[in-house]
Task: structure prediction
Amino acid sequence: MYFTDDSLLPENQAPLMITAAPYGPMWMPGDCTPEQKLPVTWAEQTQIAVDCYNAGATILHIHVRDPKTGHISKNLKEYGDQIGRLRQAVPKMILQVGGSISFAPEPGEEAKFQSYDSRHKLAEIDPKPDQVTILCGTSLYDLTALHPVDDSFQGTRFENPAMLHAMANMVADSTPDFYLENIKQMVQHGIQPYFALGHVHSLELVERLIRKGYYMGPVNGFFSIGAGAACGANPFDLMELIRRTPHGSFFTYQTTFRLTHPVSAVCIALGQHTRAGIEDNLWDTTKGKRMTSIQMIERHVRMAKELGRAIATPEQARQMLKIGVTYKSTEETLANLGLPPNRRPGNMGFLVHETDGRFHPAAQGGCGHIHAGEWEEKLTVPALAGAGAGKN
Result:
């Protein structure tokens, strides 16, 4: 993002999109207090979405829990059934399925992501979600590196040394064999890829795969930070992530445990977007004090209002994220992101997109559809540099 003199003024900032993450796949019911409402039954998993929406969230990050076991479900049909229930309960929310499908481990069991084939099956969910998160680049994701046991894991089963060891050795597995195929399958099924990144080098991976033609569409995602081998707690590293994200993209910044409060405050002030819920954090700002997903969302709303920044409506969020939109070429994708074009042979120096230097109105619309209107009367075809070369 490039900041101009007026970028921090609230009237110039995009409305805040808050992603609710209330399902807590790493937790079991005994890890949370009754007030924190770890949703287990189908009714609870649906009602929490309604509560998050009413509190101010416009995007719902979904993990489906099997009520019979309390663990995250391995049954694809249950995912589709739950998406159907959520479509009825919160029809305006953007439904985003967590693509990691990492499951709460038993004591001594390795904490790991599921196989590539299992994760690809999320493209076949029916009814389909709006987005599925796609991790790009394998990395260690060690929550224990930044967070002391007597602070972040107090009163949970992660006080067990075997559980803590499993968490410390968790590897988020995503090689090119996975993420290139996963992107392709999501696009083929009409689901928007939502890029899940841990540091600036995973953002570079996304730009490279776009430049090579593996993905042509809007670029949205979140940075999952606050762990060992991911971006940590240094605010200068956070600012580098914000600085490096393309103009035409929308990223949410999700960190872990009590770091979520200061990081969210910074991101709200800088015009970025946030995530809130017990998936990422169980705690208030005060050590040892628990907090609910709803309370976290409400805090983000209050912080935004104190700064005069609007909260995105579901309609605004869909328009910003360009749900349902795809592009026809790599060049169109790069142009919409505000990134320079690919270099052509003989093109030396810094790169810019070709233009005749005049302003040409873009088509007006939203939700993937052009809207008919007066703007059509003002259209002209730009004469690009080199057009007509060799003609008399």
About this structure: Confidence is low (pLDDT under 50) at residues 102-108, 385-392.
